[in-house]
Amino acid sequence: MGWFSMLFAAGMGIGLMFFGVNEPLTHFGTSFDGGSWAPLAGAEGNAAGAEALAMAATIFHWGLHPWAIYAVVALSLALFSFNKGLPLSMRSVFYPLLGERVWGWPGHVIDILAVFATLFGLATSLGLGATQAAAGLTYLFGAPESDITMILLIIGITMIAIGSIVAGVDKGVQLLSKINIILAAMLLFFVIAVGPTLMIATGFFENIWNYAVHLPALSNPFGREDANFSQGWTAFYWAWWISWSPYVGMFIARVSRGRTVREFLVSVMLVPSTVSILWMTTFGGTAIDQYVSQGIEAVRDAGVDLQLFIMLEQLPLSQITSFVAIVLVIVFFVTSSDSGSLVIDSITAGGKVDAPTPQRVFWAIIEGAIAIALLLGGGLTALQTMAVSTGFPFTIILLVACYAIIKGLMSEPKAV
């Protein structure tokens, strides 16, 4: 439970909270109003077809694809570190290709790119989390809606993350991750119970089927008049996942020692993907139902950082559930920050897993400072731009890593 909690909390907790309502609703509106791929399911003016497309597109972004990216990095790091005895660092993955040159400038370049990708990928997540937490505090308690509120949030949460870092992985990160998973599960099952339960239950399997049916069309970035889906959504997500991959991959590898490759792949790809699909089906499906069946336009018209709270407002105990949602965003923020600091610290320390604590604290502070700078410099657009900018060059490294991991696995001793 502790292992899975850390894996999931590090992987995409903040993203699910931020986009769980927004993305399905946005895709629904686009396809219902005649978006460029609406004809796929006869979705224009057809609520059922538009919802099918919306959920398929959401699962396309949050299902197997990001976890496959994470699995490549995590499995390669685990293999070359634990089985081959190399340092737990991105450069070690390229030993089959570069040999001893990984300890020279080529290895330095790989690790530097990994650090920058991780820093800005984390900053994107922390910025999204701060934006949503600030919006929730304004909505629930009337806190001032300003940059100062978000800056104070980032500073406060970074201080909590530093406390968790000092406590260590077992006492700090794992405990917070378990608390987070329990709170997330409670919120999820509450919405399932009091929301459109039957629709969620049947929709879960229907959405997986619709995803499989529409996967080729969703994967094709060409031939659409509206390029926003492939360039505005998919390109951002792919870059975000790739920029996160050294951080999430190394963290997963670090907490996965002793697992078999089969256990690892099932746990890293299938289990989190299933949970992500259930989460999007529950929150996104409930929001779409509120808009279509109940005519609640506020849930569609609210800002992206407020849509979750507007959706919860239509359900019982909304004050409590909204507060739980704010706590969830904050704790996901903390777990992302402290686990990210552990990873960056390991890379910059040459693969050591027991680097000095002040060094980890330094990286936690840097992450918070970058998030503040990007929020003040351009808000959500600046966050997304930096994720794309750092994700693109690291894509090349990941493609080469795919070949390196095959060579590494082929060199493993054969079972008798």
Q: What is the terminal-to-terminal distance?
A: 32 Å
Give the tally of structural domains.
1
How confident overall, as mean pLDDT? 83
Radius of gyration: 21 Å
Membrane topology: Multi-pass membrane protein
Family: Belongs to the BCCT transporter (TC 2.A.15) family.
Keywords: Cell membrane, Membrane, Transmembrane, Transmembrane helix, Transport
Transmembrane segments: 64-82, 103-128, 148-169, 181-205, 235-253, 265-288, 308-334, 361-380, 386-406
Task: Write a structural description.
The protein contains 15 helices and no strands. The model has no long low-confidence stretch (mean pLDDT 83). The chain has a single domain (2-410), classed as Amino acid/polyamine transporter I, CATH 1.20.1740. With 416 residues, it is an all-alpha fold. It has helices at 2-19, 22-32, 47-62, 64-83, 95-98, 105-141, 147-167, 169-194, 197-219, 228-254, 261-292, 298-301, 307-313, 318-348, 357-410. α4 (64-83) runs antiparallel to α11 (261-292), α4 (64-83) crosses α15 and α10 (228-254) packs across α15 (357-410). This is BCCT family transporter. InterPro entries: BCCT_transptr. It holds the Pfam family BCCT.
